[in-house]
Design a protein that fits this description.
38% of the residues lie in helices and 14% in strands. The protein is an alpha/beta fold. A 5-stranded parallel sheet has the order 6-5-7-9-8, sandwiched between helices. It has a 4-stranded parallel sheet with strand order 2-1-3-4, sandwiched between helices. Strands 11-10-12-13 form a 4-stranded parallel sheet, sandwiched between helices. α5 links the parallel β3 and β4. The radius of gyration is 23 Å and the shape is globular.
Length: 399
């Protein structure tokens, strides 16, 4: 039997791809700013574009296609409107004559559209596997257990839940039942101000679901609270990993959730891009970690990011901390204005769940609808819809 020791290495050389996957090697092509070696494949069927056009034309005004900013270009091409999740849901509600709402986004977005649209409208998600890792980090059972923990600690009556738009219909309904509101990354500060105003400002607390980073950044950066005012509730630990005393002392009870894309950016990313690109402006989404937001030049929602780049002077340089599809689209859009736009991190990635909505799924959806067959309909039950809508209406009433 042959024995292999460290003094006698195997005569096997790892391939460049293997080294890349193991994190032991870099591909210079991945550092071009908005491109990566694992680029998305082209549609498998060369006539998919024509088939999508034909099916959409056949449906006419019966279909309204929504495209989230993080979708692939091949999908955005067929969107009637583009935007963030809440804008798209409201756009759908503003089109009561559309029989079918095709939501090119993720599951919680389609749920919100179903809640806000009429009973005679049918919301369709081209791929039911298009979920959201952040939304999945808070289940109805976990949140109910959290409320029990708050009750046992004697603070539940002082807690107002504020849930991010990026949450399931169940979580929105929980929020509505318990006197809370929904927020977006654009109006999170107004939502927190409203929540703290629902009781004695000295004792009122907020349970922020499900993104800890947006909650922390809004509370500390925008409202002047301290990091010590914030505690993180971990649903995978007994009592959330917190003592009753910690819950009583906290102002912000942050759910331990995050965005898998925005959570990847680090302080090293910011420092590295500043070293590589002198004079660069760092612009990040508030779902990024607190240290990243603190080190950035500008912080704002997806719509804020787009408007900031629209207003940016020619020749300016920008490193953007948000999803790659949008960053690449903006880089291409403003290239003619000599605006240099790169992805904040060297190792680029797409939102894997957003990218489940591809052209083949969209074509299948549109052709099915054109043939009179409704596929992948998203329905929210009546009770969940009632309380979720209550929470959304509180948000819409915010000053």
């Amino acid at each position: 039997m042959r024995v292999v020791t460290t003094a006698q290495p195997l005569d096997v050389q790892p391939t460049p791809l293997a080294l890349l996957l193991l994190g032991r090697e870099a591909d210079p092509k991945s550092e071009r700013g908005v491109d990566c070696p694992g680029d998305l494949p082209a549609p498998s069927d060369p006539d998919l574009v024509e088939r999508a056009r034909a099916a959409k034309a056949k449906l006419g005004d019966k279909v309204f296609v929504l495209g989230h900013h993080y979708q692939r270009d091949e999908v955005i091409e067929f969107a009637d409107v583009t935007g963030d999740s809440f804008k798209l849901a409201r756009d759908a509600a503003a089109r009561p004559d559309a029989e079918y709402i095709v939501f090119c986004g993720v599951h919680f977005m389609a749920e919100s559209a179903d809640i806000l649209t009429g009973d005679d409208q049918q919301v369709v998600l081209p791929d039911l596997a298009a979920g959201c890792s952040m939304a999945d980090m808070a289940t109805a059972e976990q949140v109910a257990e959290c409320w029990d923990v708050l009750t046992e600690a004697g603070v539940a009556e002082q807690v107002v839940p504020v849930s991010y738009m990026n949450s399931s219909a169940d979580i929105k309904a929980f929020t509505g039942k318990h006197g809370g509101t929904i927020c977006t990354s654009s109006n999170a500060k107004r939502a927190l101000e409203w929540a703290f105003g629902q009781g004695d400002p000295a004792t009122t607390k907020v349970l922020f679901l499900p993104d800890q980073h947006l909650g922390r950044n809004t509370a500390v950066r925008d409202m002047g609270l301290s990091l010590d005012d914030c505690v993180v509730y971990n649903p995978h630990k007994p009592n959330g990993g917190l003592t009753a005393e910690e819950l009583r002392a906290a102002k912000m009870i942050l759910w331990r959730g995050h965005c898998s894309v925005h959570g990847r950016f680090s302080l090293d990313s910011v420092n590295d891009v500043r070293a590589r690109i002198p004079g660069v402006n760092v612009l990040v989404h508030p779902e990024c970690k607190h240290e990243v937001v603190a080190a950035a030049d500008y912080v704002g929602s997806t719509e804020y990011i787009i408007k900031a780049l629209e207003a940016a002077p020619a020749g300016s340089k920008w490193a953007i901390g948000t999803e790659l599809n949008l960053v690449r689209r903006l880089a291409n859009r403003f290239a003619a204005e000599d605006k240099e736009i790169v992805f904040l991190d060297k190792t680029v990635c797409f939102c894997s769940t957003m990218n489940r909505i591809d052209l083949p799924h969209l074509v299948w959806t549109l052709e099915s609808l054109a043939d009179g067959k409704v596929v992948n309909r998203i329905r929210v039950d009546e009770e969940t819809e009632r309380f979720a809508k209550l929470a959304l209406e509180r948000m819409l009433a915010l000053p």
